[in-house]
């Protein structure tokens, strides 16, 4: 399971400047916890074959990462948890039927959607039933859950014992149904299990917590997963120099996911420019295909990680996440399963970007059209337009000298083309893909400061 952020968080204050908060609020008062009853309490116990293939989608569907349609309800009595949730766009809160006072108090502070539990059902403020609650602790109870048995749009399940297997069974049972199934979760880690069950996951979670950090961690998880819907802008770079430099410690990154032709990791000696290094998924007469592996480069190199961050290859270890990117800039997250560091002969590859060619080819109006169509993000477009068209910045990467190590070529529409160039065949004038970004980094996070790197 991917690790969630553990950064310390200061207490969240009640914001008055956000439109989701009411302007006529008073100070949140401390209220007694409601008494839990049996009916309302939910507990959670040869040579390398150069395939002429355009970049293709991953064999693994990215539907598990499509979280924009996933729903989150919050079950809490902590006003700071409420504030943190509303600030992050989650405004549906569950209360016990005895806690109408707390719901009224919070409704004076923020625009929330209160729901109330009563006798195994959940009702809205107008008394309309919106969900049915089921506690599942045995196989027989699980079998009672099926779409035809309910006429209400939502089902909230409380898995008292097992979690993963029942959740997977429920996902399978309700696929294609209009019923949204929620699972009660006491932590972001539990919520992640439910949201990823059988890849597609349940339709939502009820996060039952009294800790602000749980809300922040779950939102950070959503942000990282939703990141894959965007496409990175990749730039065409021209190789200027290739030469052997001697021995060094290089890193093979083995992922818990399979990669397809066109996919790899973004790696570079400098954060300002990362090369798309291809995976070892292509067939060879001399060695078996390893579609889970990227022979990424030496220990000092940067690699792209979720959230626009970078990490040194030497810092990667089992359980960490990296960004897998294809020729078109489509990206997804993948978990590192193993890292191998071995001493091997290295080759230095240097490249430059000729933006004057890019600008003369597309023209500024076309670039603006690209921006409006979200091919480039605003930040990417700003960076592109600010770079001098005659910029002589050198971008470099060191890689192991081996036929199975390759850089990805630019993607030219739907035309048949080669996907990669092995470093053993690489020469000046060849074109490869590069990711341009800010060069200054602090603990992998891009910062604005003066920096010179050679």
From TrEMBL:
Keywords: Amino-acid biosynthesis, Aromatic amino acid biosynthesis. Pfam families: DHQS, DHQS_2nd. One of its GO terms (biological process) is amino acid biosynthetic process. This is 3-dehydroquinate synthase domain-containing protein. One of its GO terms (molecular function) is oxidoreductase activity. It comes from Gossypium raimondii (Peruvian cotton). Residues 70-222 form the 3-dehydroquinate synthase N-terminal domain. The keyword Kinase does not apply. Residues 237-353, 384-454 form the 3-dehydroquinate synthase C-terminal domain.
């Amino acid at each position: 399971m991917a690790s969630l952020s553990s950064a310390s968080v200061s207490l969240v204050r009640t914001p008055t400047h956000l439109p989701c908060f009411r302007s006529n609020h008073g100070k949140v008062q401390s209220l007694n916890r409601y008494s839990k009853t049996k009916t309302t309490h939910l507990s959670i116990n040869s040579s390398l074959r150069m395939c002429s293939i355009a970049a293709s989608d991953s064999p693994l569907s990215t539907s598990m990462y499509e979280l924009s349609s996933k729903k989150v309800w919050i079950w809490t009595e902590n006003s700071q948890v409420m504030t943190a949730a509303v600030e992050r766009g989650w405004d549906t809160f569950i209360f016990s039927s005895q806690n109408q006072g707390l719901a009224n108090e919070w409704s004076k502070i923020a625009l929330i959607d209160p729901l109330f539990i009563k006798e195994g059902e959940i009702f809205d403020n107008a008394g309309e039933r919106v969900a049915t609650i089921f506690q599942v602790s045995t196989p027989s109870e699980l079998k009672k859950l099926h779409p035809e048995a309910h006429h209400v749009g939502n089902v909230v399940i409380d898995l008292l014992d097992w979690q993963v297997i029942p959740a997977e069974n429920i996902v399978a049972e309700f696929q294609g149904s209009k019923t949204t199934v929620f699972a009660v979760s006491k932590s972001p880690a539990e919520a992640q299990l439910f949201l990823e069950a059988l890849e597609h996951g349940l339709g939502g979670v009820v996060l039952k917590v009294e800790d602000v950090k749980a809300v922040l961690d779950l939102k950070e998880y959503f942000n990282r997963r939703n990141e894959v819907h965007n496409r990175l802008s990749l730039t065409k770079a021209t190789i200027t120099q290739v030469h052997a430099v001697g021995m060094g410690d290089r890193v093979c990154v083995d992922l818990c996911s399979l990669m397809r032709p066109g996919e790899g990791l973004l790696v570079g000696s400098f954060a300002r420019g990362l090369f798309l290094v291809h995976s070892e998924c292509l067939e060879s007469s001399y060695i078996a295909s390893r579609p889970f592996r990227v022979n990424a480069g030496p220990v000092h190199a940067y690699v792209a990680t979720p959230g626009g961050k970078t990490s040194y290859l030497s810092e990667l270890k089992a359980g960490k996440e990296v960004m897998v990117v294809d020729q078109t800039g489509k990206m997804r997250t993948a978990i590192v399963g193993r890292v191998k560091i071995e001493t091997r002969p290295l080759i230095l590859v240097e490249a430059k970007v000729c933006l004057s060619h890019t600008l003369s080819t597309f023209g500024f109006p076309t670039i603006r059209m690209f921006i409006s169509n979200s091919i480039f993000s605003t930040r990417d477009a700003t960076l592109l337009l600010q770079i001098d068209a005659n910029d002589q910045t050198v971008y470099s990467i060191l890689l192991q000298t081996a036929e199975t190590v390759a850089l990805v070529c630019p993607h030219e529409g739907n035309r048949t083309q080669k996907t990669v160039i092995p470093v053993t065949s690489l020469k000046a004038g060849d074109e490869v893909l590069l990711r341009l970004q800010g060069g200054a980094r602090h603990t992998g996070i891009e910062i604005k400061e003066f920096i010179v790197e050679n």
